Amino acid sequence: MSSSDRTEFGEYLRRRRAAMSPPAPPRGVRASRRRVPGLRRQEVSDIAGISVEYYTRLEQGRAPRPSREILTSLAQAFGLSGAERDHLFRLGGESPPEPASPASVIRPGLLRLLRGLDDTMPVTVHDGRLDLLARNRAAEELLGTFASDGPFGRNIAYQAFTTDVLAHLLGGEGSERFLRIAAAELRIALSRYPGDAYLRALVAELAATSRSFRDHWEEGEVSASRSAIKRMHHPAHGWGRFEIEVLHDPERDHWIMLYTPHDDE
Questions:
Q1: Does 124 share its domain with 79?
Q2: Region 50-72: what's the mean pLDDT?
Q3: Could you give the CA distance from residue 234 to residue 170 in angstroms, rounded to a whole number?
């Protein structure tokens, strides 16, 4: 960390400390008079499990670059949100920690968006493990129901390699292209969540049951599709083209796919 970085880091610590509420005194004990708002340095260092001398040097911009363990302890001591913790890590010269797994709950506003587009376009939401979390009515009409259940029944890659859904939806050439992308994105998911038991079990299951998956997996491809035009078969309206855009909620690692009907089919 440069001297200016250490100064900015120390200022952030002071602001967070000043924003914390002092602990309530025990019943019957008169509260001591405080000269400044928030917690004392000693109180913060006790909560974080570090020496008050070291914490003081951090605030004064005189300490060397803090370790990831120290940054984690400080974030927990201050009760920081995910965004605030990530900011603390960046100020400390470290990349923010990766989440152990995607969030399982979709933002209420995003669910309202899906319902509001029922009559406009298909919309789906999946997480960073490629598990489908939600879709609106238009997406259900286009994509149909899930063809399998079990622990991986809502996983897009599992559906692609173990059912015939893609052949009906995308045709031969389109389904083969999707399989390649599914394997590549599953590899990205596993690299982001290397300790995720669900993803490891999923890969093991596909490797044991799908020759197509083994062939694609052995290619070692890594890619992510964020924009495309696909020819898809709608059960009620026949073949049509859809322009697909993918939006990302990085805090929860949720991916929103919007299928805009294309007029040139």
A1: no
A2: 94
A3: 10
Residue 100 falls within a domain, yes or no? Answer: no
140 and 249 together in one domain = yes
Q: Which domain holds residue 154?
A: 108-262
- Say which amino acid occupies 238: G
Check if the beta carbon of residue 225 is closer than 8 Å to that of residue 158.
no
The number of distinct structural domains making up the chain is: 2
Contacting residues for 94 by C-beta, under 8 A, at least 6 apart: 68, 71
CB 133 within 8 A of CB 105: no
152: three-class secondary structure by DSSP:
coil
Cα(56)–Cα(260) distance, rounded to whole angstroms? 56
> Does residue 103 form part of some domain?
no
| Residue 136, domain CATH | 3.30.450.180
Cβ-based neighbours of 88, under 8 Å, separated by 6 or more? 12, 71, 74, 75, 78, 80
- Where does a domain end: 58, 91, 124? 91
Band (136; pLDDT cuts 50, 70, 90): very high
Reference 55, options 74, 69, 38; nearest CA is: 74
**CA-atom Rg of the chain in angstroms:** 25
Residue 239 inside a domain? The answer is: yes
CA dist list (Å): 159 to 58, 106, 125, 147, 247: 51, 22, 15, 7, 22
pTM of the predicted model as reported, rounded to 2 decimal places:
0.77
User: How far does Cα 95 stand from its chain's mean position?
Assistant: 15
- Copy the structure tokens of residue 218: 């052995």
What confidence tens digit (pLDDT) does each residue in 218-265 have? Answer: 998 887 777 888 999 998 889 999 999 999 998 899 999 999 998 765
User: What single DSSP character describes residue 131?
Assistant: B
